[in-house]
Write a structure and sequence with these properties.
heterotrimer; A mainly alpha; B mainly alpha; C mainly alpha; A: mainly alpha; 0% strand; flat; B: mainly alpha; Ferritin; elongated
Chain lengths: 141, 192, 88
C-alpha cells in the first residue's frame, strides 16, 4: 500500500508528539531520582555516618544510640548504612529453628518403607494410639 | 509443567462403608490443614523464594501433596460410592449430598468451602518456611485425631502413612530453614 | 511372573522411595550415598515402568510414556477406582 504525502506528514507529527511525551516522562523520572539521591546524601553528614565509617562499629553505635539517623534510614552509600547493617546483627538471643541433622543411613527395605511412610528409620515416628488393630499390610489382601 | 502418573502414591482399596468417617476425612481434602492447602501453599510460595534449594523443595513437596489430595479423594469416593440415601442421611451427609450428590468437593468436615485465607505467602523466606513447618505439624496432628476417630485398619494404615509424610516434610523444611539461618544473614536477599 | 496388581505395587514401592530420596537430596545435594542410590533406583523404576507399560499401556500422559496407547490411557482403570481386594 503506497503512503500518500499527507499520510506521511501525519505519522511524522504523531511521532513528534510521542517523542515529547517520552522526554517529559524521562525528566520526571530524573527529578524523582535526584530527589531520592538528595535525601540519601544526607547520610554522608557527620550526623549520619557510623563512627570511623566502619561497618563493624555500627552495632555498637546503634546499641548506644538507636535514634541515630544512620541506624534508621537507608543510605545511598551502603557502607555508611547502619540500617542495612542489621544484616550483620546477630543478636545472641533470638529464636531459631533447630532440626537434628539426619545422617544418610538406617533404611527400611522397599516393602516396609511404603508402610512406614519413609525410607529413613531415623525419621520413623509411628502414632501408637490405643486401640490400633493393625499389623496387616493392606495391600496384601 | 506437570505430567500425571496414573497410579496413587499409596494403594487405596477400602472395604469400609463408614460414611461418618468419610465426612471427617474431607477435612484433609478441602480443610484448613489439609493436603490441598499444603499443595497450593508450597506451589505458590516457591515463585518468590531466593534460594534454589527452597525452590526445589517447595516444588517437590508441593507436587507430593497434590498426590496426597488424590489419596484422600480416593478414600472418600470409595466409601461413598455405594452408599444408600438412608445411609447418607444417617451419617449427616445429606447436606453435602444436596449440594454435590456423591461428588467430592473442597470443604472442611462441616461443609465450609476451601479458602485462600487458609494459606499465606509473605515473600520472606524466614516467615514462609516457618509457616510451612507449622502447616506440617497441624496436618500431622489432624491425622492423629482422625486416626483416633476410626477403628478400621485399612484407613488407619493410610492415615498413618500420610501422617509420617508430614513428619518427614517438617524435617525437610526445618533443614531448609537451618540452611538459611546458619549460612546467610537473615535479610541478605532483599532487593531494595 | 508378577500379575498386573503386583507389578504396579512394585512400581509404587520404588516410586515412593524415590520421592523420599528426592526430598532428602533437595536439602542434602552433596550426599554421595544418596546420589548413588537415587540413580540406581531411578534406573530400576524406569525398567519396571517400561515392562509394565509394554503390557498394560501408558502410565503417564502427553506422550511422556515409553509406549503410547490412547485407548489404554482412557480405558485402563483409574487410580481412585476400587480394586476390591485386587490380586488380579
Amino acid at each position: 500500500m503506497l503512503r500518500g504525502k499527507d499520510q506521511k506528514k501525519e505519522y511524522k507529527d504523531e511521532f513528534k508528539d510521542i517523542k515529547e511525551e517520552l522526554e517529559d516522562l524521562m525528566d520526571e523520572f530524573k527529578n524523582k531520582k535526584n530527589y531520592k539521591d538528595n535525601m540519601m546524601v544526607s547520610c554522608k553528614s557527620s550526623k549520619g555516618t557510623c563512627s570511623q565509617g566502619k561497618k563493624s562499629n555500627c552495632l555498637e553505635d546503634c546499641l548506644n544510640d538507636p535514634a541515630k539517623y544512620s541506624c534508621n534510614v537507608f543510605c545511598k552509600d551502603t557502607d555508611e548504612n547502619c540500617y542495612e547493617s542489621y544484616k550483620l546483627f546477630n543478636p545472641p538471643i533470638y529464636a531459631k529453628a533447630h532440626i537434628q541433622v539426619q545422617p544418610y543411613k538406617n533404611f527400611f527395605n522397599l516393602d516396609d518403607a511404603i508402610i512406614a511412610g519413609t525410607i529413613f528409620k531415623d525419621l520413623y515416628d509411628p502414632y501408637c494410639n490405643s486401640g490400633y488393630v493393625g499389623g496387616k499390610r493392606s495391600y496384601d489382601e | 509443567m506437570w505430567y500425571y502418573v496414573k497410579t496413587l502414591q499409596h494403594p487405596v482399596n477400602l472395604k469400609s462403608t463408614d460414611l461418618r468417617m468419610a465426612k471427617l476425612l474431607i477435612t484433609q481434602y478441602g480443610g484448613p490443614d489439609g493436603e490441598l492447602s499444603a499443595a497450593l501453599r508450597y506451589l505458590n510460595q516457591r515463585y518468590s523464594m531466593p534460594t534454589n534449594k527452597s525452590k526445589a523443595l517447595l516444588t517437590d513437596i508441593g507436587t507430593e501433596e497434590m498426590a496426597h489430595v488424590e489419596i484422600i479423594a480416593t478414600m472418600v469416593h470409595q466409601i461413598m460410592e455405594n452408599a444408600s440415601i438412608d445411609e447418607i442421611k444417617k451419617a449427616g451427609l445429606d447436606g453435602h449430598y444436596a449440594d454435590h450428590g456423591k461428588a467430592l468437593f473442597y470443604t472442611d468436615a462441616t461443609g465450609n468451602p476451601w479458602t485462600a485465607t487458609y494459606i499465606q505467602a509473605k515473600g520472606d523466606i524466614i516467615a514462609d518456611l516457618h509457616e510451612d513447618m507449622n502447616a506440617e505439624q497441624k496436618a500431622r496432628v489432624t491425622y492423629e485425631w482422625l486416626m483416633n476417630l476410626t477403628d478400621d485398619a485399612q484407613i488407619k494404615e493410610i492415615l498413618g502413612f500420610l501422617r509420617e509424610r508430614e513428619v518427614v516434610h517438617y524435617q525437610r523444611f526445618g533443614e531448609a530453614l537451618m540452611d538459611v539461618q546458619d549460612n546467610t544473614k537473615a535479610r541478605d536477599f532483599d532487593i531494595l | 511372573m508378577m500379575n498386573k496388581h503386583e507389578h504396579l505395587l512394585e512400581i509404587q514401592k520404588v516410586q515412593f522411595a524415590l520421592v523420599d530420596l528426592n526430598l532428602f537430596l533437595d536439602t542434602h545435594p552433596e550426599s554421595e550415598g544418596a546420589k548413588k542410590d537415587f540413580a540406581a533406583l531411578s534406573s530400576e523404576l524406569k525398567r519396571l515402568i517400561w515392562d509394565y507399560e509394554k503390557k498394560y499401556g501408558p502410565l503417564t500422559n502427553f506422550g511422556s510414556a515409553y509406549f503410547q496407547n490412547p485407548d489404554a490411557w482412557i480405558n485402563s482403570p483409574w487410580p481412585w477406582e476400587n480394586e476390591k481386594g485386587g490380586k488380579r
